[in-house]
Amino acid sequence: MADIIVQSFQQAINLLTSGNPEIYATVYRTIYVAGVGSLLACVWSIPIAVLLGLYNFKGKWVVKGFFNALIGIPTVALGLLMYLLLSRQGEFGSLHLLYTLNGIALGDALLVSPLIISFTANALGTADTQLRDLARTLGASGLRTNLKLIRETMWSMILSITAAFNRGFGELGIATLVGASLLGNGTIFSGTRVLTTAIALETNFGRFDVAMAYGIILMAIVIALALTLSLIERLREEDGLHVKLTFWRGLGGS
Amino acid sequence: MSLQLQLVDIKKSYRKFTALNSVSLEMQGGKITVLLGVNGAGKTTLMRIMAGLENADSGQLLFNNQNIDCKSLRQVTTLVFQKSAMFSTNIYENLAYGLKIRKVPKEDIKKKIADALQAVRLSGFEKRRAKKTSGGEQQRIALARAFLLESNVLLLDEPTANLDPNSASIIEKAIVSRKSSDRIIVIATHNLTQARRIADEIVHIHDGKIVEAADVINFFENPKSEISRKFVNGELEF
After folding, report:
1. Cα dihedral sign, A189-A199-A110-A78
2. For chain A, which terminal residue's Cβ has fewer other Cβ atoms within 10 angstroms, N or C?
3. pTM summary value
4. Which residues in chain B touch residue A128, judged by CB atoms under 8 angstroms apart?
């Protein structure tokens, strides 16, 4: 087993340095569907989260509970639903999104929406209640107070969008059913193949080292993203602009 | 004529708990009124109602003999909270927030902030992140932020709680320096020695009721109510 892991690392490095365009295309497709999916989800999720986080209405706890529950929705179940809706006989068949990257991105957007809504609404709702009172006692109107609270929780929002991206980046069910890249010998629908489906496909073919190599690439991207965010957060927490400028100059910026 | 803020028969309950029970009170500009009472007496609730952050269940608030609602109250009052709240920006931006809302010109903001920071002995702190400063410094920033707005009514809820004597002394001096006929200053505290040092008038609140209101000398030398006498002598059990 240890041999396979060592070989996988070597294989991952070989794959990345081989200049094989399919590898880069797979990585690009994965980033594309997760990125477009997360951004698309933001379009409706952030307004819903603001509504849930900052305003009180009857039955709010039920709506919040509903979105909390949807965070754990199995990707295969959502993938199946998407498949039925997007198939030729489905309600949205005319959009021709089945077996396309945009179809997967749409599925990802639906998958990560509850996550963005719940995390952001929670951050807004638990933002120090004193901050709301502070803004009001300093003369801010209701709208201005809410805008200030949104600004104060901006970092939490960025983190929730990142978590959404990671969820979309590592999901398999939607990519499998909507992208159908596991069908046939893997070449017919290779245009929708992403890292997770590539791992599943290579495992099916018994090429464990290649599958592991894809896994390592996937993990490396997720970890690199998390570390980058941690670095930005640290710079932000440390001393704001001064450290940022020093860092920028250190990289040769002006 | 100095300013006047009147509370008439104010009542406030939270479910079954009565926080304020028929509170009537009158405060004048040019004087420091100290709301004195043990923890849970109703001081903070009263301050929040006076700041326009909460509605009373019943009763009237009069500013210069005119009825005033919450929204209008927020335009003439500024409350400094017991636990100072800071925005996640630098000190300059924290201080400038209220002034920007009031559309004060940029150059004036700069000058006013420099003066306000000097008043609380934090000159040169403009670019520091507000949340990274110490508790005492944050309380002084909060005070400077309130001073800048030059509100008619300055409300300070336990402004020196948990602070070292040096920070407390700086804050007390800064508060006293703001006394003027066109400003009402109200401080909520349970600190008797502080009340004796800076108050012109004392209002003793207990269990949501005002048990005594008197000038500082009469309150400490000759308290009329039994509860106040016990409180002054440190005999009040609660």
Report:
1. positive
2. C
3. 0.79
4. 85
Summarised one tens digit per residue, pLDDT across range A127-171 is 878 899 999 999 999 999 999 999 999 888 998 999 999 999 999
Interface A–B counts its CB contacts (< 8 A) at 49
Long-range contacts of B117-126 (CB under 8 A, 24+ apart): B117/B91, B117/B144, B119/B144, B119/B147, B119/B174, B119/B177, B120/B144, B120/B147, B120/B170, B120/B171, B120/B174, B121/B170, B122/B91, B125/B91, B126/B90, B126/B91, B126/B92
B101 to chain A, closest Cα gap in Å: 7
Q: Which of B19, B5, B4 is nearest to B57 (CA)?
A: B19
Put simply, the answer to whether A139 touches B87 (Cβ < 8 Å) is no
Provide CB contacts within 8 A for A74, sequence distance 6+: A173
Cβ(B172)–Cβ(B198) below 8 Å: yes
Residue with tokens 């920033």: B141
Count the Cβ atoms, other than its own, within 10 Å of residue A154: 12
The burial class, CB within 10 Å (0-12 / 13-18 / 19+), for A91 is exposed
Q: Are A44 and A114 in contact (CB under 8 A)?
A: no
Instruction: Tell me whether residues B87 and A148 touch, CB distance under 8 A.
Output: yes
SS3 B238: coil
Strand B32-36 relative to strand B201-206, pairing: parallel
Q: Which residue of A has its CA nearest to B131?
A: A237
The residue of chain A nearest to residue B130, with distances taken between CA atoms, is A239
Q: For B4-211, CATH number?
A: 3.40.50.300
CA atoms within 13 A on the CB side of B92: 13
Please indicate if any CB of chain A lies within 8 Å of the CB of B149: yes
Q: What residue segments make up the domains of chain B, in order of their start?
A: 4-211
Task: Please report the pLDDT score of residue A83 as a whole number.
Answer: 94
- pLDDT in the model for residue B140: 92
B219 touching A, CB under 8 A? Answer: no
Do the chains contact at A152 and B51, CB–CB below 8 Å? Answer: no
Say which residue the tokens 């920070």 belong to: B167
Instruction: Check CB contact of B88 with chain A, cutoff 8 Å.
Output: yes
Both tokens of B90, joined, read 């630098």
Interface contact flag, A133 B88, Cβ < 8 Å: no
CA distance A29 to A21: 12
Q: Which of A243, A157, A235, A148 is nearest to B96 (CA)?
A: A148
Contact of B220 with chain A, judged by CB distance below 8 Å, is answered with no
| Assigned CATH topology for domain A2-250 | MetI-like fold (1.10.3720)
B145 vs A: CB within 8 A: yes
Amino acid identity of residue B1, one-letter, is: M
φ, ψ for residue B35 (rounded to 5)?
Answer: -90, 110
